[in-house]
Structure formats: C-alpha cells, structure tokens
Structure prediction request, 161 residues.
Amino acid sequence: MERVYIGLGSNLAEPRQQIEAALAAIASLPGSCLAATSSFYASDPLGPADQPRYVNAVAALDTELAPLQLLDALQLIELEQGRVRKAERWGPRTLDLDILLFGGRSLTCERLTVPHYHMHARAFVLYPLAEIAPQLQLPDGRLLDELLAACPYEGLERLAG
Ligand code: ROI
Prediction:
C-alpha cells in the first residue's frame, strides 16, 4: 500500500456534486482505501478570469494500484463525469483529478509527473492538503509548512459542511 494524495477541482455543472461523486468513485477503486478527505474550498480561477470559481479539495488514498493504473482509473472517472478536453489552456472543466504525491516517490514519464508540477505554489492545493496531512514532507525534503508560508491564503474560501 502506498499513500497517495489526489487534488480534485471542478467549476462546471454543479462543482460540489462533481467533487462528491468523484470522491465516491475514488473510494470504490480496487485495491484502494480512501483514508481522508479535506473540506471543500471555493477558489478564484487560476488562468483565464472569465470562468466560474472552482471548488477544490484533496483526498488521501491508500492504494495497491501502480501509478499509471491509478492515472488510468482517475482519467476514466473524469470522462465518466463528462470531462471534455478542450483546446483552451487552463479553461473551465467539469472535473480535474490530479495525482499530487505518490508515496515518497518522484516520477517522470510522458503521462505523469509526480509530485505534480504546480502543487508547490497553489493555495487551492496546499491548504486542503495541510488539513489532512499537516506534517507532510515532499520527496525533495521540503516541508508542507514551508510551502504554505510562501503561499498566501488568497482567493480561497473554506466551504461549510
Ligand atoms: N483554478 C482553481 N482555482 N482551481 C483549479 O482546480 C484549477 N484547475 C486548473 C486551472 C485551469 C489551472 N485553474 C484552476 O486546471
């Protein structure tokens, strides 16, 4: 079993429900156990500003799946929840599932880079992650606390219940 952290985001078609449904699908992945989920956060869009606010969350999953098996499974969930890949970079999406961390590993291949490229500076990833893994250390030795200290809590709003 390895502990994996997954970032969830949605800003189309009832984002909160998209995240709820994705968590249920993740919880039923084979050889896997959903260990924790963060609160949901509303966040200002990073990228083009002419799109709705996002709902973001982070989940901790213990899994026996290999990284690319997990990636396949997450991409299938995205597709099943109506994700259409558009040409526009950083445009709106019904569901985005990102593997943020996979155990203590650093991985680079064509389809997957872990730790996730952009996680280090994104408030909508780091703050939910800190809720469920406050003592976390990245494979390069950096502490989550250090990343948080350099990342203002901006454009982020923790949603009730
Ligand atoms: N912006 C926010 N706030 N949350 C996201 O999950 C998110 N995902 C993306 C881009 C378009 C970069 N912007 C985002 O992929």
Notes: The first strand starts at residue 2 and ends at 10.
